[in-house]
Amino acid sequence: MKLKTISLFLLCMTTLLSCKQSAKLAYPDTPKVDSVDVYFGTAVQDPYRWLENDTSAATAAWVEAENKVTNAYLAKIPFRGKLLDRLTALANYEKFGTPFKKHGKYYFSKNDGLQNQSVVYVQESLEGEPRVFLDPNQLSDDGTVALTGLSFSNDGKYTAYTISRSGSDWSEIYVLETATGKLLDDHILWAKFSGASWQGDGFYYSAYDAPTGGKEFSNVNEFHKIYYHKIGTPQSADQLIYQNRQYPKRFYSASVSEDETMLFLFESGAGRGNALYVKDLRQPKSKFVAMATDMDYEYYPVEVNEGTVYLYTNYHAPKYCLMTTTLSKPAVADWKRLVPEQNDVLSGAQLIGERFILTYNKDAADQAFVYDLKGKNLHKVKLPGIGSVGFSGDKHDKECFMAFASFTMPTTTFTYDLAHNEYALFRAPKVQFNPDEFTTEQVFFASKDGTRIPMFLTYKKGLERNAKNPVFLYGYGGFNISLGPSFSTSRIPFLESGGIYAQVNLRGGGEYGEAWHIAGTKLQKQNVFDDFIAAAEYLIAERYTDPKHIAIVGGSNGGLLVGACMTQRPDLFAVAIPQVGVMDMLRYHKFTIGWNWASDYGTSEESEEMFEYLKGYSPLHNLKAGVHYPATLVTTADHDDRVVPAHSFKFAATLQACQAGSNPVLIRIDSKAGHGAGKPISKQLEESTDIYAFILYNLGMTPAL
Known about the structure:
The chain is α+β, with helices and mostly antiparallel strands. The protein has an 8-stranded mixed sheet, with helices on both faces. Strands 5, 6, 7, 8 and 9 form a 5-stranded antiparallel sheet that branches. Strand 27 (about 355-360) and strand 28 (about 365-370) form a beta hairpin. It is globular, with a radius of gyration of 25 Å. The termini are far apart.
């Protein structure tokens, strides 16, 4: 493929800030440049290429001008202030994380209500007085430093914690003395997709070389390395444990078994799964031995118990299974199936109290079962209803905690008795709404090719199918990720105002195993969009709503979903909210870790067929002048180094130029924020207010505030 790029221009600031008048809104004038890429003989213009330079003064001025237009529009929505007040009141309740036990003490996270970040507490017993162990709110003045992980040394002496600044994927690692809380001098920079895995008085972590100044959030990440850090030494003295110069764009990470007998090495980035290697730590000169090298499957050690390695995998089991092996026979060909593949998807496995708790995904909701160490099914776990469940406990402890949530039930913690299959309430949050006023139903509909697709609908009891109910239609459909039931206070005003929250389980996700995932990837990606469009058509056919009352929302890969569907069927939706979306499918792989998505998307460079397919649905490249597009609010953030903001910048600029009629096209660009993880609650509330205010206003709703 021959690639040609021409992008030389001089941008005048007065030109940038001048405005052109549309029917109702005046948008900033976004200059075009002569930038053309040639793919397999086909020229593709990229007139807003200059917006990819996220550190330029011109881009900064454009961002400021766009935010000014967006903020002015949102400020005129009459109920925006009351909506913020209501969302703030709803969010102001105690939120507890599931307790976990380490070295005889109990740890849990808690947010008093409106704290920007949750605080980690420790207590000597479940009846003891909790004390603060680590408060991330003390790490920054504005709550933009988030705690992303905790890791205790196996002797309990040290605790490593990882943080993220302003939502970036870059991590820093610090170390505390566990008993005293004293912060040590150890400080690791430029870690990414890594925690700290302890061996003795040190830990393994993964990092990149320091990036080029000014390009920390946009340049491609290459040469992921594994290091060992010894407590009390500088990072410059850390021992390089593993690197692979042959594959600069692959990911590498390490994990140590609790008994410190095995070091596992994970390699990914070249397929849908990962390779797995192991090293015997009892032999100082031992080398890594291959366990599995086919990166089209997933291989994850669940536990090492008395020399037996228990592994969660989809190796020759598209719906996943549990297998075992030992160091003497590490190769996957010698593994034994402990719990074979079932009809439903095995989504998780934990060893607690000498029992396995296996979680299965059945039609996008969780079920759980208790198994013994020989793979015998002892009983099904009783759950409070249809929802999502998680468990916390140690393999040697008899105590087990269960966290459960649904669309109408916030995450609630129970104690679970494995032997008697009974649970009891431990902690329940108190939210200022009545869940008994709402209901959730699951429906199934046929997609374009006849595939049966599930969808959850949550709404106020007594809702009439009058063909005009407002709908918030949400989906993802990618990367083997399943969307299960979840609770969010931000949905409540919409539901209280007569809206329907619809969550679709699209192909590309993991709800029905690897075959379901693959059916929404590469040259089958259109299936995902067809599923989402069919969901809207089903809701219309069943008289829940009509095209004038549907808002579509999705983030990241879900932002791509929204962008593709609104360009393919602009007539079907009234509002579109593409959040931090992948909008330029021809160039996504050229930024940060975008190359890692090729297993789902393919790339424009790999073949002419793949190029034509990507170009055929790429949201940026399918906008057409003179089309009446839905009212659109694009959202992104300046520190998003997962899906760089250039995707949203170029899409918004192009959509503003193409839009016919009076529907607004706005972009909301957050500062000191990233892809979404770790965002302080103050920013979450502001963003939720703007998104829901925009939706309610453009659907013609009168919110019940």
